[in-house]
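Thread: quick sanity check before group meeting

JM: Hey all, I'm pulling together slides for Thursday and realized we never actually wrote out the predicted structure for the chain we discussed last week. Dropping the sequence here so it's in one place. If anyone has concerns about the input, flag it before I start.
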Amino acid sequence: AIAVADRAGLSFTLRDIAAALDAPVMSLYSYVDSREQLLELMVDQCRLDMAHTDQDGGWTERLTAVAADNARLFDGHPWLADIESERAILGPGTLAKYERELGAVQSLPLSDVARDAALTLVVDFVRWEREGARLAELGVAERFPLASRIGTAAGQAQNAATDADAAHEFGLKIILAGLASLEKR
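JM (edit): ok, ran it. Output follows.
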């Protein structure tokens, strides 16, 4: 099912999964109750299987590694960026990912709620960055001429429109600098 979603995105059907397995569609219902349940299992499995970098160094290096790990996860499974919430599915993969990633913010002198918010900010940044790349496919220039003109000018000035890595590095640097300012308080 994950391989099918990697090819087709979230528009896959149970019929697509059955065809990939060369099995009758109804046989899938022996394993899952619905497409939604299958999707939850797929998300959790991707999070369980994701590659992760050892968290060495200070919190900035560890959060940078978390961002890179999530970028690789979304690059490998682009449909994951469309999933509503990081914690909507509380299976073993999601819980292990959350536990591991919390290690990156543990040393920040923040409350536990603020640590969770810092982690969520970094992971959401990576997700939003991946979603932004799809805007070009949506006919934005025709539908939103002002946003297109100003966004294009800003992208050209910051070299972001042609260099996604530079935009990512800049955004992550700003997030980490903001968190560092909280640390000094």
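AS: nice. The mean pLDDT is 86. The CA atoms of residues 5 and 131 lie 16 Å apart.
JM: adding both to the slides.
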